[in-house]
Design brief:
Elements: E1 5-8, H1 12-24, E2 28-32, E3 43-46, H2 48-56, H3 60-64, E4 68-69, E5 72-77, E6 82-87, H4 88-92, E7 99-102, H5 103-111, E8 119-121, E9 125-130, E10 135-139, E11 144-147, E12 149-152, H6 159-165, E13 170-172, E14 178-185, E15 192-196, E16 200-208, E17 211-218, H7 229-234, H8 242-251, E18 257-260, E19 262-264, E20 270-271, E21 274-276, H9 279-282, H10 291-307, H11 312-341, H12 345-364
Parallel strand pairs: 1-2, 1-12, 2-8, 5-15, 12-21
Antiparallel strand pairs: 3-7, 4-7, 5-6, 9-10, 10-11, 13-19, 14-17, 14-18, 15-16, 16-17, 20-21
The protein binds flavin-adenine dinucleotide (FAD).
The site of flavin-adenine dinucleotide has 34 residues, from helix 1, strand 2, strand 3, strand 14 and helix 10.
């Protein structure tokens, strides 16, 4: 290949693809409309398949140097009673032990070593065109760029998707239409822990002994209002350590990040020389924390198919075939959990101790295997 692969968006998916193409010796250029990394202050939980993908990307040692190992997860009622727990280290094995990391650390890690001049910040893509031999994109400074393939790694509101695939398929998540995310001083949380009430769900994951990542949303499709009074009301009466972290963020609501949870469900991710990866292709509610994991896997798989030497449209078409079953599995498991989350608390208290561990295994079991090309 002499002309570059044009990657639109320097989030987790775009940076991971750039790394993988660089490793394979395939020319690329990334265009990112922001002048710095998005959401850099928050954290991301990386289940075992995300860690496996980072090993494939040559970042196995680097990931062990950041964040906090998440050896165990626990699901509790709003009163604090344990419904069930999972030994995550035993489930995933030592090489794929889950971790919670700051997004900024993950971005820095993915970007390290990319040659100067390949990542163009502050340049958004405004239009995409294809012809028989290549693709051309219009950039926000009025210039154009030409390449062999355009990869939409530009997130849930993707411009590439709108230009090349139409703008259908975005919907509010079944679990909750919106959520709050925040970082808070760690009151001693050393595991992934969630408290589920009839109106709200509150998750805490340690990022370090000093800092915890929090996520709060409605349970079973509610709105999770942007008025912070919703947080105070919904989680009043929840036990420690929820109480302490809530008090800390309510004292300074500027630390709270409120955003809609949107999903993308579309029948095609490739259209000749245009491909969608990451959230642009399949944004999914963070029920199983698969957004970053699927984005990292997408990048490795697409780079491997392009490196295998097939012509570009054929490699792109193959990408859709290879990735579809795994993504469909995650979407199905996300819907299943989102529906069961909306049952009344007393039903959950009776059934979760039995169905919960089986549900965890059903969701994550198939993701322990690397997707075959
Ligand atoms: C509340 C919440 C919690 C989550 N928690 C987790 C979690 O714990 N674990 C997990 O794995 N996942 C989680 N996710 C999902 C995860 O954040 C995403 O799946 C992941 O960030 C997707 O990465 P991406 O690179 O595909 O998209 P993005 O991170 O959205 O990056 C897209 C990039 O494209 C850029 N861009 C957009 N349009 C253009 C344009 N026209 N031109 C140039 N650049 C453009 C944007 O500025 C951005 O930098 C969560 C999501 C939400 C909403």
């Amino acid at each position: 290949m002499t002309e570059p692969v044009l990657i639109i968006g320097a989030g987790i998916a775009g940076l991971a693809l750039a790394r993988a193409l660089h490793r394979e010796g395939i020319p690329y250029a990334i265009y990112e409309r922001r002048t710095e990394a998005a959401d850099a202050g928050l954290a991301v939980n990386l289940p075992g398949n995300a860690i496996s993908a980072l090993h494939r990307a040559g970042l196995g040692d680097a990931i062990e140097g950041v964040g906090f190992p998440v050896a165990r997860r626990e699901y509790r009622t709003r009163r604090g009673r344990l419904l069930f727990g999972v030994d995550e280290n035993a489930f995933w094995g030592p090489r794929a032990a889950p971790r919670c990391v700051r997004r900024a650390d993950l971005h820095t890690m993915l970007r390290a070593g990319l040659p100067d001049g390949t990542v163009h910040l502050g340049l958004g893509v405004t239009a995409v065109r294809q012809d028989g031999t290549g693709v051309e994109v219009d950039l926000s400074d009025g210039s154009t760029a030409r390449g062999v393939l355009v990869v939409g790694a530009d997130g849930v509101r993707s411009t590439v998707r709108r230009a090349a695939f139409g703008d259908e398929g975005v919907r509010a998540a079944v679990l909750s239409a919106a959520s709050y995310r925040f970082m808070a001083p760690n009151p001693g949380v050393d595991r992934w822990a969630v408290w589920i009430g009839d109106r709200g769900t509150y998750l805490l994951i340690p990022v370090s002994p000093a800092e915890v990542y929090g996520f709060a949303c409605a349970t079973g499709g509610g709105p999770a209002s942007p008025d912070v009074g919703w947080l105070a009301d919904t989680f009043a009466g929840f036990p420690e350590p929820v109480r302490q972290t809530l008090k800390s963020v309510l004292a300074d609501p500027s630390q709270l990040y409120h955003s809609p949870i949107e999903e993308v469900r579309i029948p095609r991710w490739t259209h000749s020389r245009a491909v969608l990866i990451g959230d642009a292709a399949h944004a999914t509610a963070p029920v199983w924390a698969q957004g970053a994991a699927l984005a990292l896997e997408d990048a490795e798989v697409l780079a491997a198919l392009l490196a295998a030497g097939a012509d570009v449209p054929a490699a792109a078409a193959r990408f859709d075939q290879v990735r579809r079953p795994r993504v469909t599995h995650v979407q199905t498991q996300t819907d299943r959990f989102s529906r069961t989350a909306s049952v009344p608390g007393w039903v959950r208290a009776l059934t979760a101790p039995l169905t919960g561990p089986a549900g965890y295994r059903a969701a994550y079991g198939p993701l322990r295997e690397w997707p075959q090309l």
